[in-house]
From TrEMBL, chain A:
It is found in: Golgi apparatus, cis-Golgi network membrane; Lipid droplet. The small GTPases Rab are key regulators of intracellular membrane trafficking, from the formation of transport vesicles to their fusion with membranes. Rabs cycle between an inactive GDP-bound form and an active GTP-bound form that is able to recruit to membranes different sets of downstream effectors directly responsible for vesicle formation, movement, tethering and fusion. RAB18 is required for the localization of ZFYVE1 to lipid droplets and for its function in mediating the formation of endoplasmic reticulum-lipid droplets (ER-LD) contacts. The lineage of its organism: Eukaryota, Metazoa, Chordata, Craniata, Vertebrata. Its EC number is 3.6.5.2. SMART domains: ARF, RAB, RAN, RAS, RHO. Interacts (in GTP-bound form) with ZFYVE1. Interacts with ZW10 and this interaction is enhanced in the presence of ZFYVE1. Interacts with BSCL2. This is Ras-related protein Rab-18. The keyword Nucleotide-binding applies.
From TrEMBL, chain B:
The chain crosses the membrane at residues 187-213, 219-246. Keywords: Membrane, Transmembrane, Transmembrane helix. It comes from Oryctolagus cuniculus. It is found in: Membrane. PANTHER family: TRANSMEMBRANE AND COILED-COIL DOMAIN-CONTAINING PROTEIN 4, TRANSMEMBRANE AND COILED-COIL DOMAIN-CONTAINING PROTEIN 4 TMCO4. Residues 536-546 have a biased composition (Low complexity). It is a multi-pass membrane protein. This is Transmembrane and coiled-coil domains 4. GO terms for cellular component: membrane. Residues 1-26, 536-617 are annotated as: Disordered. The lineage of its organism: Eukaryota, Metazoa, Chordata, Craniata, Vertebrata. Belongs to the TMCO4 family. InterPro entries: AB_hydrolase_fold, DUF726. The gene is TMCO4.
Length: 206, 617
């Protein structure tokens, strides 16, 4: 089973308190939704294997606590992450405004610069929307992030968010190739260049 | 028993009000929630780095679960902690350490964490060797000096011991102390069970020495008090130090076990500590080294040290034979030549000089007898350790020559038992006449929690000579590094300080320093391999060290092996000049073996000067 897995990716979920980070993760990994989910302490951790374009990737997802009192711990998690999911609540403008702070932190603590970021506007099932989809899209473009709107409650866009992120990471071989080295498989530099466009093409090499 | 009334006058220094009055919460619980999380996470990550073996995983998960409870963290963090303990998310360990040491409760004193962890471990009276390794590792991450940890251990011990001594005085009045040791312990156990924990807090609270005031208060405070006060305190005491109270010194071999004729523990030092050291001598000689304890004069690894007296008759025979061989080969050139023959690895049965082979019968018999007996003794030692005669506290084993062989067989025997983990902290094998193939050492990873040190000497011709018939391939641990890929394994090349097998006893002081075992004059030299910068500087300069901390980070072992013979002459030559200059500088009456000057001259030194060559004993 494990031999099929192309790579293990470290994904980080960050964002203000109460935007639904844990709910998104819970929906993605267990396909459940709990409206009364307690605040995360420190960090939560889940593993899920997904298959994107016929490639299996094992995701180690670190769901950070949004609460201010755990903010001191967040820098510990950035190291070695290949993908970051930045979440805001479309019904709370303040969570959108604070995205800049999160991006700053991301830049400060991330060890690599080719990390794939994704912006997720959560809770689109709610009526009282305060942040327009276009605003989110604009922000994401400005900071070259992937963007999607989702709802952990209705399951809208959740799967898609993770899949797209993983797809993008796999298309950036420099990001995860170091992981494969541990398993004794190493792609030569030339092969990587060819494979970058068509991911299934070089995955068969493995 | 009105314990409280009796004790209060005896402890006038009960001045620390915080220690007495309201119950104290362990420091760990006073931290912010984020830092308690970081604390637990840091422990989990450290555990996974220190004990990645699958057989240790249950220890790791149990530990993490009870630590979460101890810190009163929400159950919700358990899966994450288990993930940390299984080796995930280790990247952020230093960040956790940083944030943790900045907690306002600590007031810039990270040793409070060490202390909290210590009281967490000791709460049920079992000081697991793995626990000590973890505490050491965490202390180094938080940059707490090791002395501080020892101090904390002592404080803890004191707070327990005081309860005991008080009682022993009353018992002494009527009967002899030694006889009653066991009795009053039991008496106490029953007696104290009826007294509330509060009394004991009142007593031990006075032990809050200025330096560790907060520490002691916490140790005996609140939850600590619930655990340590009253009967539990004594239970812990007995558990930690051996149920019989007498511990190792009280151990008497009930019957002749197998082929073993002599087996006793001799105390090397007075004192008690939460970890003990057992030193094992490899042979006995005439003169200074005729006793088992003689080579260990400088050893100060723990304040409670024993040396194992075993088969003196045979070891004496062996020592004499070794000396005969040396004096028989009076020719300095021959010895020198032999050393280089061994060093360059061209030794074969045929190359041994005829003069040596002619005296071979002198050595072969006692050597063979001792080889066999050391294995038996090792197995016996294993069962003593497994039955916890020493109490539930970590043991460090140090031995040279056949003493190292005793350790080897002790570990081998222990590895076959189920509950062998967490007893032995470190082992130091010096010039060990045992198999040096890594696969034979593999099972030791299960037994030893801390370091496995193999001190070897490439030019030890005597060892390779006595081993010439036993093992053709000459894969002897005492002659070369053991290529075990584990963070525990540390190979220390002692070639520069040991020129012959007999040097292991004579140069023990320097050797111990080189392998990172604390010796009498210096303190705080022992460090964990994982802790950066904690290695003794002496080792770095005087011996070339090949440590296999991590299979991945280290290059393939092929890099080490072939370079050995080629490197050999270089450090040797360098050292030779060192040695030549050293005795010249020192005054003649101070020998290199002992600190005290002996007007008659140290017997071994005199022998040296008469013998082959001053630089070459």
């Amino acid at each position: 089973m494990d031999e099929d897995v192309l790579t293990t990716l470290k994904i980080l979920i960050i964002g203000e308190s109460g935007v639904g980070k844990s709910s998104l993760l819970l929906r993605f990994t267990d396909d459940t939704f709990d409206p009364e989910l307690a605040a995360t302490i420190g960090v939560d951790f889940k593993v899920k294997t997904i298959s994107v374009d016929g490639n299996k990737a094992k995701l180690a997802i670190w769901d950070t606590a949004g609460q201010e009192r755990f903010r001191t711990l967040t820098p510990s998690y950035y190291r070695g992450a290949q993908g970051v999911i930045l979440v805001y609540d479309v019904t709370r403008r303040d969570t959108f405004v604070k995205l800049d702070n999160w991006l700053n932190e991301l830049e400060t603590y991330c060890t690599r610069n080719d990390i794939v970021n994704m912006l997720v506007g959560n809770k689109i099932d709610k009526e009282n929307r305060e942040v327009d989809r276009n605003e989110g899209l604009k922000f994401a473009r400005k900071h070259s992030m992937l963007f999607i709107e989702a709802s952990a409650k209705t399951c809208d866009g959740v799967q898609c968010a993770f899949e797209e992120l993983v797809e993008k990471i796999i298309q950036t071989p420099g990001l995860w190739e170091s992981e494969t080295q541990n398993k004794g498989v190493k792609l030569s530099h030339r092969e990587e260049g060819h494979g970058a466009g068509a991911c299934s093409g070089y995955c068969s090499v493995l | 028993m009105a314990t409280g009334d009796r004790r209060s006058p005896r402890l006038p220094q009960v001045t620390e009000p915080a220690a007495q009055g309201e119950p104290h919460v362990p420091t760990g619980r006073e931290l912010t929630e984020a830092n308690r999380f970081a604390y637990a996470a840091l422990c989990g990550i450290s555990l996974s780095q220190l004990f990645p073996e699958p057989e240790q995983s249950s220890f790791c998960t149990e530990f993490v679960a009870s630590l979460v409870k101890w810190l009163e963290l929400s159950e919700a963090v358990l899966p994450t902690m288990t993930a940390f303990a299984s080796g995930l998310g280790g990247e952020g360990a230093d960040m956790f350490a940083q944030t943790l040491s900045k907690d306002p409760v600590l007031k810039g004193d990270p040793s409070l964490i060490t202390q909290d962890l210590l009281s967490f471990f000791l709460r049920d009276g079992c000081y697991d060797a793995r626990a000590r390794v973890l505490v050491c590792h965490l202390s180094s991450l938080l940059q707490v000096p090791l002395q501080e940890l020892e101090l904390l251990e002592d404080t803890f011990l004191e707070s327990l011991k005081d309860t005991g001594e008080e009682e022993s005085e009353t018992a002494e009045a009527s009967r002899k102390k030694k006889e009653n040791r066991r009795k009053w312990k039991r008496y106490l156990l029953i007696g104290l069970a009826t007294v509330g924990g509060g009394t004991v807090i009142g007593v031990t609270g006075g032990l809050a020495a200025p330096l560790v005031a907060a520490g002691a208060a916490t140790i005996i405070g609140s939850a600590g008090a619930a655990a340590l006060g009253s009967a539990a305190g004594i239970a812990i005491m007995t558990s930690l130090f051996g149920a019989a109270g007498a511990g190792l010194t009280g151990y008497k071999m009930k019957k002749r076990v197998g082929a073993i004729e002599e087996f006793t523990f001799l105390p090397l030092t007075e004192g008690r500590q939460l970890h003990i050291t057992i030193a094992i001598t490899g042979w006995l000689a005439s003169g200074k080294y005729r006793t088992f304890s003689a080579p260990w004069a400088a050893l100060a690894h723990s304040r409670e040290q024993y040396c194992l007296a075993w088969e003196a008759k045979y070891l004496m025979e062996l020592g004499n034979a070794l000396e005969t061989i040396l004096s028989g080969l009076a020719n300095v050139v021959a010895q020198e030549a032999l050393k280089y023959t061994v060093l360059s690895g061209i030794v074969a049965a045929l190359t041994w000089p005829a003069s040596l082979l002619s005296v071979a019968n002198v050595i072969d018999n006692p050597w063979g007898v001792c080889l066999h007996r050391s294995a038996e003794v090792g197995k016996h030692l294993a069962h003593i350790l497994l039955s916890r005669q020493q109490g539930r506290r970590p043991v460090t084993l140090i031995g040279f020559s056949l003493g190292a062989r005793v350790i080897y067989f002790c570990l081998q025997e222990m590895a076959q038992e189920k509950d062998c983990q967490g007893i032995v902290e470190d082992v130091v094998l010096l010039g060990a006449p045992v198999e040096g193939e890594a696969r034979h050492w593999e099972p030791f990873r299960k037994v030893v929690s801390g370091r496995i040190v193999n001190g070897y000497c490439r030019g030890d011709w005597l060892l390779s000579f006595v081993y010439r018939t036993s093992s053709v391939q000459l894969r002897v641990a005492g002659l070369q590094p053991v290529q075990l890929q584990d963070r525990r394994m540390e190979n220390v090349d002692l070639t520069s300080m040991v020129s012959g097998h007999l040097d292991y006893a004579k140069q023990m002081d320097d050797i111990l320093k080189a392998v990172g075992v604390r010796t009498r004059p210096g303190w705080g030299e022992k460090g964990l391999l994982l802790a950066p910068g904690s290695l003794p500087s002496a080792a770095a300069t005087s011996a070339s060290r090949t440590s296999h901390q991590d299979g991945k980070s280290q290059g393939p072992e092929a890099g080490d092996t072939p370079s050995d013979p080629s490197q050999a002459p270089a450090p040797e030559g360098l050292h030779q000049s060192d040695r030549d200059s050293l005795p010249a500088a020192a005054s003649p009456c101070i020998c290199s073996h002992g600190v005290e000057s002996n007007p008659l001259g140290c017997p071994d030194c005199t022998q040296e000067t008469q013998g082959p060559c001053p630089g070459l004993h």
